[in-house]
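To: structure desk
From: M.T.
Subject: fold request, one chain
Message: Could you run this one when you get a chance? Sequence is below, nothing fancy, just the single chain.
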Amino acid sequence: MEIIDYVVLAVFGALGAFISGFLGVGGGIIYIPVLDYFLKKAGMNDTMLVKGILANSLFTIIFSGSVSSYNQYKHGNFFPKQILQTALPGMITAFIITYLIKTGTWYSKTTFNYVFASMLLIIVVRMFTSKSKIHTNEKESPAWHYQITGFFAGIVTAFSGLGGGVVMTPVFTDLMKQSIKKASSISNGVIPLFAIVLGIYNLTDLPPQYISNWQVGYIVLPVVFPLILSTFIFAPLGVSASQKTSQQAIRMIFASFASLVFIKLIYEIFFK
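Reply: Done. Structure tokens follow.
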């Protein structure tokens, strides 16, 4: 890797961190395509690539999600009970699916792209077309609503590397009638808990290929470090911006970013 590569990674890390704080999605929506490009450029082979993308995205999300969640706490927008109710079942499902992916060859890069694209399409359509009201004084949902959401968010996390925020935020707002700012805060709190469990597993596992002397397990430190470094500055800025932005605007920005990643994936699937 050259100096310009580290600069580009830092720039995209800043964007991912800002989005993490602003939307409560962990930043994976930016990290995934960036890691796809740079891990391939660093020499990661096709059989390991999807596992490497997932592992390094989630490792980066540990930091972006944690910094974002801490800043939600500083702004008085923090919900520890709901975070734990959501996170605990999801940590279990995320680990189980990650283990199955790691120990087999069935989850290829092509399969990953189709899963990722299908999920993004559903989210984009839902966020752009939903006519649901803006919720500000919602009643608290029962614990099992959060637990079921976490259960499925953990599965999506393991399959997509996104952290689960792209599932949790729409479910919390559209189905559970939470305000989007509360939904983003809960999502920001849950995401690093998912990522920490998987991060420890990915750091201690033995991959079939090493592409760097500074690789620990599946984590390629020269690639993730510039992404992580930007987190400490730009995730707090994203949280601050979200506090000053209308809920409808946040929804549209969320859907717009998902649309861009969806278009990129469609191009990769059908034109490469």
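Reply (cont.): The longest strand covers residues 215-216. Let me know if you need anything else for the meeting.
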